[in-house]
Every structure is written in C-alpha cells, then in structure tokens.
Amino acid sequence: MQDQDERREEREFRQPGATGAPGEPVKPAPQARQGVYSGRIMTILLAGIVLVIIGFAMSYLGAV
C-alpha cells in the first residue's frame, strides 16, 4: 500500500509539467528518464544484499 508521499510523487511524475507544441517532448530528457523513488524497492534491495552476505558467511564458516 502506498503512503501519502509516494502517491504525491507518482501523481506529479505522471502529470506533465508543462504543455508544448504537438510532437515536442513535454519534460526534459533527464526528468523523463528518472523514475519515482520507492522506499519499498530500497528495502527489498537491502534485504537481498544482507541475505547474500549472510549466506556467504555461513558457507565460509561451514567450510572451515
């Protein structure tokens, strides 16, 4: 479930910031390429990295 900040960021990201002539990009290229930051994505990424490190440590200790 999204919190208030995520919903606001998503809404701002999806809505065009300005109107342009037909065929012209509305947002600058760097802004169009970036995504909306999500705390859940970072949490899952960090949990995965920690689990991999724990797995390597356990396999090393088991081999010793």
Description:
The protein has 64 residues and is mainly alpha-helical. The protein has a domain at 38-63. Helix content is 64%, strand content 0%. The chain is built from three helices and no strands. The mean pLDDT is 78.
Q: Per the principal axes of the C-alpha atoms, what is the gross shape?
A: elongated
Structural class: mainly alpha
Quaternary organization: single chain
Strand content: under 5%
The biggest sheet, with number of strands, parallel, antiparallel or mixed sense and barrel status, is:
none
What pattern of helices and strands is seen along the backbone?
Answer: HHH
**Terminus-to-terminus distance:** 44 Å
Count of separate DSSP helical elements: 3
- Rounded to the nearest angstrom, the radius of gyration is 20 Å
Mean pLDDT: 78
Low-confidence stretches: none
Report the count of strand segments.
0
